[in-house]
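Data availability (excerpt). The following record was deposited with the supplementary files.
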Amino acid sequence: MTARKDPWNSGRIWRAIISQRELIFMSVPLLLYKILFSYVPVTGWTMAFQNFKPAIRTWYKQEWVGFSNFIKLFSGINGERFIRDIRNTLAQSVLTLVLGYVCSILLALLLNEVKNVGFKRVVQNITYMPHFLSWIIVAGLVSTALSLPSSGGIINTLLVNLHLVKEPILFLSNPNHFWGIVAGSNLWKELGWNTIIYLAAITSIDVSLYEAADMDGANRYQKMFRITLPGIKSTIVILLIMSIGYILEAGFEIQYFLGNGLIVEKSETIDIFVLRYGIQMGNYSLATVAGIFKTLVSIILISGANFISGRLGEEKLI
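Predicted structure:
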């Protein structure tokens, strides 16, 4: 009789575990941290199926209402507000994503062509320093920059002095400007920081490719678009897939600090909806349903983007 083969090859698995036991022990605290703060809180999703009243009843004695909170979120006045906020969140996220990706990649390509190391470092430092500012400081700077010239508004001052507009623009009073303000603020804050990743990817490109292109008479622009850009394509795809998963994370701080009653129809996002109509009004069940919606949409989007990328022969997350 022949010995039965172990389909899981447990002997090899245990040998691998023993040989890497130090790394496994080092990862245990991080694994516990992830379980404690990322998976244990998921038990709070039960509030979405309850008429949750923390001051009246304990958690396990709540009134169970089934899917009525889900229906309430997408119907009536709450439904109109939530659908409007989904539109605002998607619009702001897409604008920020497109503008940020294009400008970050373009800046990385241009910096890679700069031969003066000192000038290159100065530009990098200037562009990624705003990343370390908190959003409340950024919101204050943006509010001041977009104010009237009499209040120190540099944007209106430049527009008037260059004769691009006849009168100052009330940027924070016109809802049509708000999506662009959010995208521009994110670009200013994160442009240099996002560029670092692409510059690091560029360093991994084989130098011999550029030498061969020089021998063939290629100019800088041809090398940029025929060698450098294809060389970092995998990095671009992976980061894009990861960003798509956060498409409903348009932000909270800048929208909350710059938003007001005049532009609420364009400034309010899902996160602000959760705060105003969920937490502040004590409707924790409604806030939980909105959070579940964001999570499910994010999972679907990142899974779909990962699948499409694989079908097109590009890099995948898994």
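Summary of structural features: The two ends are 41 Å apart (CA to CA).
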